[in-house]
Specification:
Layout: H1 3-21, H2 25-36, H3 41-48, H4 54-93, H5 112-126, E1 130-131, E2 137-138, H6 140-143, E3 163-168, E4 171-175, H7 181-189, E5 194-203, E6 214-224, H8 229-244, E7 251-258, E8 261-274, E9 277-280, E10 285-295, H9 297-302, E11 311-318, H10 319-327, H11 340-346
Parallel strand pairs: 1-5
Antiparallel strand pairs: 2-4, 3-4, 5-6, 6-11, 7-8, 8-9, 8-10, 10-11
Helix pairs in contact: 1-4, 2-4, 5-10
The structure holds 3,4-dihydroxyphenylalanine.
């Protein structure tokens, strides 16, 4: 046997033995490195072929290739057997008990605020109102001045309004205190006839059982020719009867004051209060539910609309308030406490919405 042949046979024997004796994937990797690493025994021999004579290459090349294949195959088959072993151990120890009951997925609910917003949008949508949103950060002009709120009005005071450390037109910006500024934004950008509702978040510096610093309102605005208080009444009666699902709901319009409407009214619905509970729809008590009125001519003029040509009505109501009344939720603050048990109780399943559109007519 030529010296090179016996060297190759010797390397092969040693390598196969080392593979055979390795106890784990880790020691097997050491063996692989020893033979096939950068400076490994077989790697070095193969590299040497680069400088060999053609004759040497002819005789030794096939022998070296044979060595490489044999050792590599042995390494792979040993690795497979280690992996199989690990898998077997896993299968033995990690048995799945298919008779165990499955884990329940916890169910999500829709919060009453978006639910009620959706109900309101559906009812007014059926009456031809489009939805229009406005920014939460407002300026003095849109939130107060254009709405005819005088400079000395208490709503402008810092105890009531969240002012920001930024200004526009020399006046501090603020978090809108009502959705009425969307009226101004609509009147300034759209041409009558206009029919919009604007649901959204509003902010006031207040916190007790009936007030939270963040709450939601929906604003309504209709502008057209020859619009009267009769249209306003018809529209709101239609809405309230549909929303509460009560035909001939007792409703009264009580004269009131808002700077942006003239005349203005507050709307009450009939109810019974007994033993601390409230029942809507009958009885001798009244409950205030929203504010409304005919858009003040000054507001129209502030938005360059001629009040002789166009008139209209506006209204605004609190989403939480109507949600509390419809679904019997007693405390306003619970809307914002993120208590999952509360949601389980008052939340709405996505696919099981209460029917709201059983009675929708024109305005
Ligand atoms: N913006 C009023 C508020 O926050 C609600 C309101 C009353 C809106 C009368 C109106 C309206 O559009 O006509 O209390």
């Amino acid at each position: 046997m030529s010296p090179i042949v016996s060297t190759i046979a010797c390397i092969e024997k040693e390598a196969l033995q080392a593979i055979q004796e390795s106890k784990s994937l880790l020691t097997l990797e050491d063996v692989r490195q020893q033979y096939f690493g950068k400076a490994g025994v077989i790697t070095t021999l193969l590299k040497g072929m680069g400088t060999a004579t053609p004759e040497e290459r002819q005789t030794q090349g096939p022998l070296l290739n044979g060595l490489r294949t044999t050792v590599m195959t042995a390494l792979e088959s040993k690795r497979d057997s280690f992996e199989q072993e690990t898998l077997n151990i896993k299968l033995q120890t990690e048995r799945i008990d298919v008779t165990l009951p499955g884990r329940d997925e916890s169910e999500g609910y829709l919060h009453p605020i978006p639910q009620v917003m959706e109900e309101v949008m559906a009812i007014f949508g059926a009456m031809g109102f489009a939805v229009k949103e406005g920014p939460h950060i407002e300026d003095d002009f849109h939130n107060f001045t254009a709405l005819n709120v005088p400079p000395e009005h208490p709503a402008r005071e810092a105890q009531d309004t969240f002012y920001l450390n930024a200004e526009r037109d020399g006046m501090p910006l603020l978090l809108r205190t009502q959705t009425s500024p969307v009226q101004i934004r609509t009147l300034m950008t759209e041409k009558p006839p206009i029919r919009v509702i604007s649901p959204g978040r509003v902010f006031r510096a207040d916190y007790d059982i009936t007030h939270t610093p963040v709450f939601h309102q929906v604003e309504g605005l209709l502008i057209d020719k020859e619009i009267t208080m009769g249209h306003l009444k018809g529209c709101l009666v239609e809405f309230l009867e549909t929303f509460f699902g009560i035909k001939d709901l007792p409703i009264r319009f009580r004269p009131s004051f808002f700077p942006f409407t003239e005349p203005s009214a507050e709307v009450d619905i009939g109810c019974t209060r007994k033993d601390g509970t409230l029942k809507i729809g009958a009885g001798d008590s009244w409950l205030e539910i929203l504010g409304c009125g005919m858009v003040h001519p000054k507001v129209l003029r502030n938005c360059t609309i001629d009040p002789k040509e166009y008139q209209g009505f506006a209204f605004g109501m609190g989403i939480e308030r109507i949600a509390m009344l419809k679904y019997g939720i007693p405390d306003l603050r619970t809307f914002f406490e993120s208590d999952v048990r509360w949601m389980d109780h008052y939340g709405f399943k996505f696919f099981e919405r209460p029917s709201i559109l059983n009675k929708v007519g024109g305005c």
